[in-house]
Design goal:
Elements lengths: L12 H12 L9 E3 L5 E5 L2 E10 L6 E10 L9 E2 L4 E4 L8 E8 L2 E8 L8 E10 L1 E2 L3 E2 L4 E6 L3 E5 L3 E5 L3 E8 L4 E6 L2 E5 L3 E10 L5 E9 L4 E4 L3 E5 L4 E9 L9 E10 L6 E11 L10 H39 L7
Parallel strand pairs: 2-15, 17-24
Antiparallel strand pairs: 1-3, 3-9, 4-8, 4-12, 4-13, 5-9, 6-9, 7-8, 10-11, 12-15, 13-14, 16-18, 18-22, 19-21, 19-23, 20-22, 23-24
């Protein structure tokens, strides 16, 4: 169960007193009493749940007391820089039994969130090691995914404080959480163009890109469906061994039916599904539109062809006659010129 209705309040006065006291008092460490903070750094996908697990060990004769935190992070009012508590933190012994006499609270602070975990003042009478589990989800309340960036989670004064009976300080924090990818899909599919038209009987080609957004290699099955029953064909229906951030490319061919009405449309959906986890999938949609082919020009009737031939032949005859006449006139002019320039004989 996720706890979302937190009350706004200040850090308890006792917690402030203990924290300040830890700075001014140098106590003799009791080496048999120890604690560990969650390991760092942590890599997690956006929207994924991750675990902060630490431990505390009591093995002295006295009753033990502890302050694990407060654990807090800043979001500065940005829900995409927030984490969500997945459930109430769990505190349990190594044999799985719960630790009694606990005080756990979760609430908003200025520009962030905070979790306080400690004993309720009655102390822990049992000796041994117990774990402190804080489950967080890499998203803000309302399901807003955490931004793909590094963020720190802090312990108060970077330490875990224990008493049994003396004060013991264990270093703790901050924890750097690196949010790297989107969880919940793990795959992103896109198609281009998202719509196009073609004449009856013609093929339309769409280009599909499948991107692996998980942190490990993945294999995908591809399926295609439509709402008008047109002919659909993928160039391949499987993509194998796509690396993190890698892409695979496929083409889709849609054939416009010969009998489709002008303006008819077909809505098409292409889905990529992880073979390892069918819950991880993504889909993209495109539209195909039928258009009538432009009408062919009507055939030229035979009478028109005959008339055209007659006119063409007549033009050729006229040109030949004009050339012949021009040639005849040229010869006649030459003859007259020669006669007029001949020498006159003496009788």
């Amino acid at each position: 169960m996720r706890f979302e209705n937190f009350t706004y309040r200040s850090v308890p006065i006792l917690l402030i007193f203990v924290t300040v006291l830890s700075l001014v008092i140098i106590a003799t460490p009791v080496s048999a009493t120890s604690a560990t903070a969650p390991s760092s750094p942590i890599t997690v996908q956006q929207g994924e749940v991750f675990l902060l697990r630490g431990s505390i060990t009591f093995d002295q004769a006295d009753t033990g007391y502890f302050i694990y935190g407060p654990v807090y992070w800043y979001n500065f009012g940005n829900e995409n820089e927030n984490f969500t508590l997945e459930n109430t933190p769990a505190v349990y012994w190594t044999d799985g039994t719960s630790v009694d006499n606990l005080a756990i609270s979760q609430y908003a602070i200025t520009d962030g969130w905070q979790v306080d975990i400690g004993d309720n003042g009655s102390g822990i009478a049992r000796d041994g090691t117990f774990y402190v589990d804080i489950w967080l989800r890499a998203e803000g309340y309302g399901g807003i995914l955490h931004a793909a960036e590094n963020q720190s989670i802090y312990f108060a004064m970077n330490q875990i404080t224990m008493f049994e009976p003396n004060q013991v300080i264990a270093p703790a924090g901050p924890i750097t959480v690196q949010v790297v990818q989107v969880l919940g899909r793990g795959v992103d599919i896109s198609i281009s163009p998202d719509n196009q038209s073609g004449s009856l009987g013609s093929p339309l080609t769409y280009f599909i890109t499948v991107m692996n957004t998980e942190a490990q290699n993945a294999n995908y099955d591809l399926t295609v469906s439509d709402n008008s029953g047109w002919t659909l064909m993928l160039s391949q229906n499987k993509l194998d061994n796509i690396g993190p951030g890698g892409k695979g490319n496929v083409t889709l061919t849609v054939t416009v039916p010969e009998d489709a009405e002008n303006g008819a449309t077909d809505g098409i959906t292409i889905t990529a599904t992880s073979r390892a986890n069918p819950a991880v999938s993504d889909g993209a949609a495109c539209i195909a539109i039928a258009t009538e082919a432009p009408p062919s020009p009507p055939p030229t009737p035979y009478p028109t062809i005959i008339v055209g031939l007659v006119i063409g032949l007549g033009i050729v005859v006229v040109i030949l006659l004009l050339k012949r006449r021009a040639l005849h006139s040229s010869h006649k002019s030459t003859f007259l010129h020669e006669c007029s320039t001949a020498p006159v004989g003496v009788s």
